[in-house]
């Protein structure tokens, strides 16, 4: 099940890029170093390499190389914008996956964004021409649906960074996302330091809340028609696992394919049972409280179900980046502890 924006590719070919797009491709090629496109570097021919460059980063679809620090980065991957900001780079365009913020970034990232002008991409589909009109010298899509054709479409024209090989769409772990982007920017040490800070936050949380260890959890997307339970490899589940929880075995038994959720019918709400359940939704909490089937489960009756009604908490938890995770933990940890209190 895929609930995220995507790049619209139907009917588009390299020829369309080269002759159309309201001049987007012409502008892009004019700004590229050697006019050849592809992952061959964004620096001006013969320009001296900056510290940390050239860079060469392997990912699931090939290798991305840069001769110098990029100046116009488009963040297409989920959470890539956060990660760039954490590394001191303000992207020229970034995806607001949940259309939650006018400026495209949550409160955990706003200070780092500063006054830089960022084009906010909302979808549900993105126009490649619109993206290329930003004249990027780097496109990042480290956390995506792993569509090779989309990667190749951009990589023909501009250095493009994909994520590691994963068996689940949008399944790039925040550690890998941070590492890959830091490496292509020539800042691997900064990336590792950021990773270490978040790992320390998780270690501190596990020390403060030993009652989480080994307890089962479920994370559920709620809508009117059905439920969707997230599986291991999804950011939300991985966050709870990093706190010591174990995703519900009943949910894991339902998984198949490369999706990050499994569908659960309303009549099977009992399959969502766990020691603690976290519910996320685009709907108001009041609607979820009126769901008699879900509210009839033992976890709901006993106060072990957490509805993340705070939009910032929900977005930070769902995005799962080096910037959003500490923010999410501050809001989520007390609720998890209360849910498991005797």
Automatic annotation (TrEMBL):
What's in the keyword line of the UniProt record? Signal, Transport
SUPFAM superfamilies recorded: Helical backbone' metal receptor (SSF53807)
Region Disordered: what ranges? 39-60
Where in the cell? Answer: Cell envelope
Q: What residues does the Fe/B12 periplasmic-binding domain cover?
A: 72-340
InterPro entries in the record, alphabetically?
ABC_transptr_periplasmic_BD (IPR002491), Bact_iron-sidero_bind (IPR051313), TAT_signal (IPR006311)
**What Pfam families does the entry give?**
Peripla_BP_2
Q: Which family does it belong to?
A: Belongs to the bacterial solute-binding protein 8 family.
From the Swiss-Prot or TrEMBL record, give the protein name.
Answer: Iron complex transport system substrate-binding protein
Organism from which the protein derives? Actinoalloteichus caeruleus DSM 43889
């Amino acid at each position: 099940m895929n609930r995220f924006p995507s790049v619209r590719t139907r009917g588009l070919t390299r020829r369309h890029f080269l002759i159309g797009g309201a001049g987007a491709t012409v502008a892009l090629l004019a700004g590229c170093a050697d006019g050849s496109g592809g992952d061959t570097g964004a620096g001006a021919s013969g320009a001296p390499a900056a510290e940390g460059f050239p860079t060469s980063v392997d990912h699931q679809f090939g290798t991305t190389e840069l001769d110098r620090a990029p100046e116009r980065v488009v963040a297409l991957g989920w959470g890539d914008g956060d990660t760039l900001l954490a590394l001191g780079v303000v992207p020229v365009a970034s995806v607001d996956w949940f259309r939650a913020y006018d400026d495209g970034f949550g409160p955990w990232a706003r200070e780092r964004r500063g006054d830089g002008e960022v084009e906010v991409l909302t979808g549900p589909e993105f126009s490649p021409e619109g993206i290329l009109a930003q004249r990027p010298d780097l496109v990042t899509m480290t956390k995506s649906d792993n569509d090779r054709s989309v990667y190749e479409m951009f990589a023909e024209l501009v250095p493009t960074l994909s994520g590691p090989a994963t068996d689940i769409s949008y399944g790039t772990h925040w550690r890998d996302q941070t590492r890959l982007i830091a490496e292509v920017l020539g800042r691997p040490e900064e990336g590792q330091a950021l990773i270490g800070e978040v790992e320390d936050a998780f270690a501190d949380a596990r020390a403060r809340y030993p009652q989480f260890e080994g307890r089962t959890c479920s994370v559920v997307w709620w809508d009117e028609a059905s439920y969707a339970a997230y599986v291991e490899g999804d950011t939300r589940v991985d966050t709870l696992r990093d706190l010591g929880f174990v995703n519900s075995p009943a949910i894991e038994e339902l998984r198949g394919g490369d999706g990050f959720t499994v569908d659960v019918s309303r009549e099977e709400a009992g399959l969502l049972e766990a020691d603690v359940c976290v519910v996320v939704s685009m709907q108001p909490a009041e609607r979820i409280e009126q769901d008699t089937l879900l509210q009839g489960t033992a976890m709901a009756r006993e106060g072990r179900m957490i509805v993340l009604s705070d939009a910032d908490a929900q977005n930070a938890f769902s995005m799962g980046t080096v910037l959003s995770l500490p923010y999410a933990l501050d809001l989520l940890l007390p609720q998890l502890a209360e849910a498991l209190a005797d």
